[in-house]
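Q: Structure tokens for this one, please.
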Amino acid sequence: MRIPSSIKSQYLMVAGSLILAVFCYELAFKKTLELWRTHSRLTQELQQSSDLSTSPGYLARKNENLDHIISAYRLDSVSFRNRAVNEIADLADQQQVKFITVPADDPLYHAPGFILQKLDFEGDFFSLLKLVNKLQATAGIGLLRSVSWMTKKSLSEDPVHNNGKKLILEVYMEIAR
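A: Here is the predicted structure, written as tokens:
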């Protein structure tokens, strides 16, 4: 039995079309469909975990940054009396400011997470202002919590230099425990 040539060409055309379709699928469409599925899956995962605070890497970096910031202000009270008071006195001396009072260990200023230390300085306004800037910029001595300016009557009535008054700077430093 002989198959007419028109039928053979139709079979060959169908078989060739199927082979071409499989060939095109393997080379182009398969990769496109896989990438589209991957995109859909990743988009869905991104929507489910859009909150960055739950990301472990983000939390680790955030914790490391916070530890770095806290360590800049962390001291214990014994260390404060030895090293930090000397450093603060040196800063005051550099600015020609008189360090009036050494901080007393007052339980009133103690809290569970930190200690407040009261420091008093005497000098002219601009020197005291420079001292405040230096205290704020110096790491390892604590954090400025409060700054107060006062005038008090001077013991030496020298009207040329201070009009009988002296300028007092009262600083509260916060030290983390």
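A few notes: The chain has a mean pLDDT of 78. The first helix runs from residue 5 to 48.
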